[in-house]
Amino acid sequence: MKKWVINKQDASAAKKLAGETGLSEFAAKLLLNRGITDRAGAEDFFNCTDISDPMEIADMDKAKRLIENAMDNGDKITVYGDYDCDGITATVILFNYLEAMGAEADWYIPSRDEGYGLNKDAIDYLAENGTRLIVTVDNGISAVEEARYLQEKNIDLIITDHHQVPDVLPAAKAIVDPHRPDDFSKCKELAGCGVALKLVMALENDIDSVMENWGDFAAIGTVGDLVPLTGENRSIVKQGLRNLNYTENGGLVALLRQCGIHEEDEIPSVTAAFTICPRINAAGRFSHPKEAAELFLCDNPVMYNKMAENLTVLNFQRQEEEKAILSDISRQIEENPLIIKKRVLVVCGKGWRHGVIGIVASKLLNKFGKPVLVITEEGETARGSARSVEGFSLFEMLSELSELLIRFGGHTKAAGFTVETQRIPEFMNAVNEYAAKHNPVMPKDIIRAEMSLSADELTVENIESLEYFQPFGEGNPSPVFHIGGARIKAVKPLKEGKYVAFTAEIGGRDFKAVSFSSAYDDFGFKDGDIADLLVTAEINEYNGSRSVNLRLSDIRPGGFREDRFFAAENAYESLCLNEPIDPALAKRIIPDRRVQEAVYDTVKKSSCLSACADAACSMGINYCMFRVVVDMFVSVGLMKINEFDNTVILQKPANKVDLENCPFILHLKEKLK
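Above: the chain sequence. Below: its structure as tokens.
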């Protein structure tokens, strides 16, 4: 279960901002949530036209001069990219421009097996093929050794990157990275493709024409790299996605058709994030990233559709690999449920593609609401990918455990590492020892709501105004709203029970709602139930009339006490980990006969574990006591539980059951004396 954080609204500030801007107070509140407090800030946010002078970025003048000299001298220039969507689009932007200008140019993107960034084998290959100048995009800022090697090869190096700057910089002719401490440019959060775009703007000495020609690729790469969609990134994405409708790149047009996007279709950032970017990334994950770059740089129209279709096939393979890995993990958890009771979920397997484990880690984080490490063994070494919740720093943890690792990198909420296979068990234990030491009570995964809304605020005009806040993404999330005390009505299945449709009665008015995150059988709410909702809202048009529809993000029983739930959940996990429990809590943990019967009857009605927990909660049975009863029934064969699938079912025990003398409950009573 996620922790709900509902932004507190300053009504007077919202009224003042609305008066200054002519916006509704609803829109003003959304702006305040984004740190925008005056008319000038609002105009900047909505206009999305200003892109600062690229020459403000440190070393941009040097990079421009070096590239122009190389072009004038006929020296071969190699654009050296990265294997993800950001790196691929950055490569396409810069190489395409250099080629258009008549430069002697080529490009190189390493495979995932080669590893991230510059490497000596690639440098040897490029040297043999006549490269005189390498320009990195979306990589290079940490390539100290490789920069020295390039000097030995007498190859000049320009680094363009957007990652954090280390203490020691590579010996390059120019280093263009907005994170340099001596850089005073306005936008520090550019993606790698954004930095490449600014370099082309500097070379062309024209911001508008470069945006028109390459803004589409910069928009895709920026969305794909999950950088904050604020400031110039917002401008790049908004203008670039608009340009996608008119792109003249035949490969990109073919890919859009593969995504089901047709000419004149409006392309929101969420469409780019969930349809275009995954197909580009799939090339690097399941084949070679050059297959994506070649599609966009191909000048043979006959090949466009076939090449774009191949990216769709690779993306399907990626989805199937995800399912296979998650199935393996489900089996591991079924065999050892204690895995997910620990503060940090750590799973390991053989042969899992390292290009997919990061996606799997993100899905597990969303599913279980706790930090996740997914490790894949590759012979004598293993690679891992980690994702975390707010308040638990992966970088700090890996730094403290660095003696157990070959290498690691990343930041607070996402990281990667390499470890010797034989040290995996030691490392896995150390991870949870670290968590217990630094976070006796772990932080919870958070879902944020912009504000609480009443029925009077759920108007077509208010929801329609959300369109002006596009593009949504990191740093500018799609607005989620809290609605308290809704009456659930007309619950019915959609798509053969895969999803749920229902009506939410709010303040005496009915709103159609749908949940795509819950199957009908797992929904847990019936007609007449009172619930608190977190929703996104959209406009529905039918037969000329327009109304507000809701899409469910999360749901709880009305009046749910979050603090009590998490306290009970923490107590339960401490019990499972055999950690000390306050004996005074025994009355809230040890179930009597009435509670046992109530839980049994609840599971009779629903096989969804979380729905049963919600039902128990509405009867005054806290989560810890509910789980104790379920575990007791599991121990004697009356129930079967699948933590991964969130299911619990009744079954007939092999032998007669004596609940009074159940070893599980006797042991628990002894522990709580």
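The mean pLDDT is 95.
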